Amino acid sequence: MAKRIDVSGLTAYYGSHMAIEDISMTVEPRSVTAFIGPSGCGKSTFLRTLNRMHEVTPGGRVEGKVLLDDENLYGSGVDPVSVRRTIGMVFQRPNPFPTMSIFDNVAAGLRLNGSYRKNELSDVVEKSLKGANLWNEVKDRLNKPGSGLSGGQQQRLCIARAIAVEPQVLLMDEPCSALDPISTLAIEDLVGELKERFTIVIVTHNMQQAARVSDRTAFFNLSAVGQPGKLIELDDTERIFANPSVQATEDYISGRFG
Amino acid sequence: MDIKPTSPTSPPPQDQPPLAVDKAGSTGTAARPGDRIFLAFSRGSGIALLVVMAAIAIFLTVRATRALTKNEGSFLTTFEWAANGAHPNFGIAVLLYGTVVSAVIAMVIAVPVAIGIALFISHYAPRPLASTIGYLIDLLAAVPSIVYGLWGALFLVPHLEGLYKWFDDYLGWTGIFEYNDGTPRSLFTIGILLAIMILPTVTSVSREVFLQVPKMHEEAALALGATRWEVIRMSVLPFGRSGIISASMLGLGRALGETMAVATVLSTSFDIQPSLLDSGGGTIAQNIASGFKEATDVEGSVGRDALIASGLVLFVLTLIVNGAARMIIARRKEYSGANA
């Protein structure tokens, strides 16, 4: 189920612009790793290199290695489509398929992966919606459009959609930035439950959130605008927030930056 | 006579407009001159449109009634168009059949191809190629229909015989694809020609819709491990669905009303051919264009009125088609991308 991510010497470009430079880190299975850092420091870009979504952007390309257990995602024979089937992603803004029902949204990934029998499909949909703590709210309206839900519900629907295919890793790109505090809390609780089953990487601008949900925290920064972002420090979350070993990290988390 | 003293404080009747303006201002309506001019202009345009539509509808109805009351045949079932003279005998059936069938053939051919081109431009082709193709497609829309007609008559018709023989060999058993040798100036040829004519319209509108699909919907599909085609199937086509329907309706409107190209190519006759490939038939617009010169309305003749009656049928047909399209779009409104 959950696999280890091993990144070494990863550099990502947008055209000729280097967005992140020479990042190496390890993410343990069944743990939550939070990425924090100022806007534009490349944490989202880095996250998107982990499931090869970065190269979808025109001009996007990557150098370096990302090992999922022992398989290099950027190996020559690797199909990015199959990478994305094993590494799920949740986006900043909830993006359920607007033309699909709640049921079809959750089933979308399964249907891509192959044929499922009808009752098998509804079992997985129910399990995924329960896993995303959404089942009780939507079980009576599975055939209604997913876009009719509230923002927080939509985001949990997107999480259900992502976990329905049983990915090895779940990437979350600021999943709460468009949500109110109560919905945010619901997602944070969910992250705590999901880490029993998945390796989770979450990008957040909210440092309390990073402190609440993550086991490990990575701090990214860039030396100046236009310079590539770099990984400054990766450590246990408690240490990062209590006693970081790099001065820049302490400045950032205590608000003394810029 | 009681003459009031004209004091500056007493409000003369001319003060009504400013008062009205105050009132309008307080309800949030336009009060500044620019706003008022624009409001008047846009409201006037809206009214003008309604007036023109009503004028056309009334004109068509009045003149059509005159013809229909004098018709000695049945307007719905007579296979004949002899409206000039003392004993007018005419029916719409052949023309309506020809109009609908040629337009449907055009749609069946053009819409899938147009969607394919639009997707190629919006999602597959590298940018320089995409803009070149887009430009060429828009250029096609600017070709006058008589030019299409000439090309159809002098180039397309002679080159279709081989295709029609092939159809006859393999699909002749269906009856509608039977081909008895002869110059194929038939409804199917018209359908092909109309398909080429409506292709640019359907393509351009579809392409614009496909380009507007929010990136986050496409990324949602990509992140689930969708291939490019699956991204198109899961997010682009469903999002563009109502746009494709609108685009098709614009094309259908042109196909139903096309006159010169049809009149140039079609070999007309007042009967319904069982096969789509055999020459014959006619369309409403073509019949009006071809018949208007000889038609008279002197001395009680209803030649022109009869043609106008057929025009009314075309008008109503277009209204029905557009209404149906709107219903299809509205029925699945909650599933459209609009509330995302």
From TrEMBL, chain A:
Tagged with keyword ATP-binding: yes
Gene3D superfamilies xrefs: P-loop containing nucleotide triphosphate hydrolases
Pfam family, one: ABC_tran
CDD domains noted in UniProt: ABC_PstB_phosphate_transporter (cd03260)
Keywords: ATP-binding, Nucleotide-binding, Translocase, Transport
Residue span(s) of domain ABC transporter: 5-247
Protein's GO biological process: phosphate ion transmembrane transport
Signal peptide per UniProt: none
A molecular function (GO) term: ATP hydrolysis activity
Residue ranges of the TM segments: none
GO (cellular component) term, any one: membrane
Family matches, as InterPro entries: AAA+_ATPase, ABC_transporter-like_ATP-bd, ABC_transporter-like_CS, P-loop_NTPase, PstB-like
PANTHER family, alphabetized: ABC TRANSPORTER I FAMILY MEMBER 17
NCBIfam families in the record: 3a0107s01c2
Protein name according to UniProt: Phosphate transport system ATP-binding protein
Organism: Streptomyces zagrosensis
TrEMBL record, chain B:
ABC transmembrane type-1 domain ranges (all copies): 96-325
PROSITE patterns reported for this sequence: ABC_TM1
CDD domains: TM_PBP2
The keyword Transport is assigned to this record: yes
Residues forming coiled coils: none
InterPro entries linked to this entry: MetI-like, MetI-like_sf, Phosphate_PstC, Phosphate_Transport_Permease
Keywords: Cell membrane, Membrane, Phosphate transport, Transmembrane, Transmembrane helix, Transport
Residue ranges, annotated region (Disordered): 1-29
Keyword Aminoacyl-tRNA synthetase: no
GO cellular component, one term: plasma membrane
Residue intervals passing through the bilayer: 46-65, 94-121, 133-157, 187-210, 306-325
GO process terms (BP): phosphate ion transport
An example molecular function term from Gene Ontology annotations: phosphate transmembrane transporter activity
Entry's localization field: Cell membrane
Family: Belongs to the binding-protein-dependent transport system permease family. CysTW subfamily.
NCBIfam families documented for this protein: phosphate_pstC
Described purpose of this protein according to its UniProt entry: Part of the binding-protein-dependent transport system for phosphate; probably responsible for the translocation of the substrate across the membrane.
Name of this protein: Phosphate transport system permease protein
Organism: Streptomyces zagrosensis
